[in-house]
Amino acid sequence: MKKRRKKTTPAPEPRFVKLSRDRRIILLDQEPLREEAGRAARKKIGEMEKLASSLEEFEKTILPAYTRWEEETLGPLLAEERQLNAKIDHLEHLLSTAGLEALFTGRDPSEIYADIAREQQEWEERQAGGEPDRSQPEPEPEPEEDPDAQKEFTDEEREFRSYVRYACGEDPDYFDKRQYKKLFNEYREWKQKREEDCGSATKKKEDIPARVKELYRVLVRRLHPDTGKARNDPNTQRLWHDLQDAYATMDVERLEVLLALTDLHESGSAIRSTLYHLRKVAKEMERTVRDLKNRFREARSSPAWQFWHSDNRQKVGTKIRAAVEARIRDAKNHIATLEQEINFWKKDAGIRGQKGPKSKSRKPKEESSDQGLFDF
Fold first, then answer.
1. What are phi and psi of 358, to 5 degrees?
2. Rounded-to-integer distance, Cα 30 and Cα 37, Å
3. Long-range contact list for 113-119, CB < 8 A, 24+ apart?
């Protein structure tokens, strides 16, 4: 027998929620919240100072010392590795150029590889004479031409035509007179409205100079280099430059953050700062600490760090030398493979040239109407 299913009771309908009409202001004790935000910011500041000192030691002491040791001990090997890498780049450039030319132009392979042999010989002569590699010259930037240079327009109309041509991708000469006049009037109205918005923003900034001056006066007393407080500290110098930028742009928000940050640096508390700015300082310090940790991780994985903090530097130096020699062997093997490929292609081109008189260049096949650009 089939079991009878129990009847499911429908869910009760939601009751009507009556909104409260009470509009009283509830005061919250911000001291615990401020202490929590200040504690998080002070913790991140401590981590930032510790990481910054370690990175400063690595960049000013460890890395220069390792570079001197590397040049004294492995100088000839490193110079040989640089020469081999330059030769690899040159051979790969020749092979890629020849392959593309043979594929898309239909030239005789004997002519292509005759040009390759000449380029390779010239490159070897330049290398022997100590001249820089100019086989791949950088293209010179072409001067931009102004299509309206020979025409008489007002400055505002020239701006409009340049905007239409370079921002919208249209040619203003293709518009009829009615459309041209309509777009020009719209451009003038948009430009005027933009200038009015900028003027209103400037007026808003002029409404708060007193707070800006007050914050700037307090921060200058703390961060000015002539005060002698941490004159050589990079963090203080960075804060001083941030202060100048914020004052130049009348950025009150940034000045408030700098006030809270200097309060935490000096006394460990930020009595004159709001809870919002304390939390903002904590987030900014967290972002800075994250970036410093990434840089510190890269520094610790470098050979300079491992060599400096090793108990047996002679053993580490032997490993580094072995790694350089292994890279040199790989580069030589790669060069041998590339030269073998070039010689094979040259030999193939020579055999084709011996079969008969100089062959004419092949004409590319005519494309049919339904053949695509990359359909071979």
1. -60, 120
2. 10
3. 113/342, 113/345, 113/346, 113/349, 116/342, 116/346, 117/346, 119/94
| Spatial separation of the C-alpha atoms in residues 89 and 181, rounded to whole Å | 56
Q: Is the pLDDT of residue 360 over 60?
A: no
Q: Distance between CA atoms of 272 and 346, rounded to whole angstroms?
A: 80
3-state helix, strand, coil in the chain (%, to 5): 70, 0, 30
C-beta neighbour count of 26 within 10 angstroms:
5
317 to 143, 320, 356: CA distances (angstroms): 52, 5, 60
Confidence grade of residue 111 (pLDDT, cut at 50, 70, 90): confident
- Phi-psi domain of 130 (left: phi exceeds 0; alpha: psi -120 through 50; beta: other): left
Reported as a single tens digit per residue, the pLDDT across 259-298 is 888 877 766 666 667 778 888 888 888 888 899 899 999 9
Residue 152's SS3 state is coil
Q: Which residue has the tokens 């499911």?
A: 8
In this structure, what token pair is assigned to residue 159? 């701006």
Compute how many other C-beta atoms are within 10 angstroms of the C-beta atom of residue 97.
16
**Of 221, 277, 275, nearest in space to 252 by CA:** 277
Is the pLDDT at 42 greater than 70, yes or no? yes
Residue 374 identity (one-letter amino acid): F
Q: Can you read off the two tokens belonging to residue 272?
A: 């004159």
Angstrom distances, CA of residue 173 to CA of 148, 192, 333: 10, 24, 61
Q: Among 266, 244, 269, which Cα is nearest to 255's?
A: 244
Q: What residue ranges in the chain does DSSP mark as E strands? A: none
pTM: 0.53
Question: pLDDT band at residue 188, thresholds of 50, 70 and 90?
Answer: confident
**Six token digits for residue 193:** 């409205």
